[in-house]
Amino acid sequence: MQPFVPASWVEGGDAAVVDVRDPWEYDSIGHLPGAVNVPFDSFRSDEGEAGKLPPRAEWEELLSDAGIGTDEEIVAYDDTQGVFAARFVVTALLLGHDPEKLHLLDGDFSSWQREYETTTDGVDPDPATYESDPEAETPLVDFETVRELLPAAESGDVTLVDTREDWEFAEGHLPGAVQLDWRELVDEERRGLRPESELRELLEERGIVPESRTVLYCNTARRVSHTYLVLRQLGYEQVELYEGSLTEWEDRGGELVTE
């Protein structure tokens, strides 16, 4: 799996390009040539499958209307260093799209426009037929699984990673969790990933190593999506997502600690 791709790959390829920003940004500020607009709010659901995933039928309709077919290669971007676009990519993954055909622009719209063309021309895609795969294996774990893993996390046998900010972590986190703000993985100037050597050093310092089973959470599965893709980019194989994250955890009375 190669989640992150450079701008040169996007420009020279034939993948379906998805812009997840608000429509006014897409229309007024501009977008990548040929990109279709699938706003972030259009694929979020408070009532959907597995917590925050949209209902499968709505997802299929959304991608079909955007002209994206079932087997198509997809690359998504935003203008927030990739965190919103990462949620699109992970949504597609969790609903059964081929992970080898899912990518995130390494950077964002602001970094793209420094060197590449943008446009305000409208895009009117030909409708396609998109079918998700309800039988696909995904890295999803649920509330019960995470609760059962807490002793292993506290003993260090499982790495439970909180991808929120320091102050959020201090206010309350899952027992045994280590803190890794997703923004620590991003180069603020380049707006894409930090160099691989820096990423590996940071992760090792936090005890997040490839050999360990790693489970990620945040509040509503947005930030965790970006961190998941970074770990997969680095070759981590045992990475799982707690989709419900703290929103579900607290609603169901899960234990939180502050120390």
Automatic annotation (TrEMBL):
GO molecular function: transferase activity
InterPro entries: Rhodanese-like_dom (IPR001763), Rhodanese-like_dom_sf (IPR036873), Thiosulfate_sulfurtransferase (IPR051126), Thiosulphate_STrfase_CS (IPR001307)
Coiled coil: none
The UniProt record lists the keyword Amino-acid biosynthesis: no
UniProt KW keywords: Repeat, Transferase
Enzyme class, broadest EC rank: transferase
Domain Rhodanese residue range list: 11-121, 154-258
The enzyme's E.C. designation: 2.8.1.-
Name recorded for this polypeptide: Sulfurtransferase
Source organism of the structure: Halolamina salina
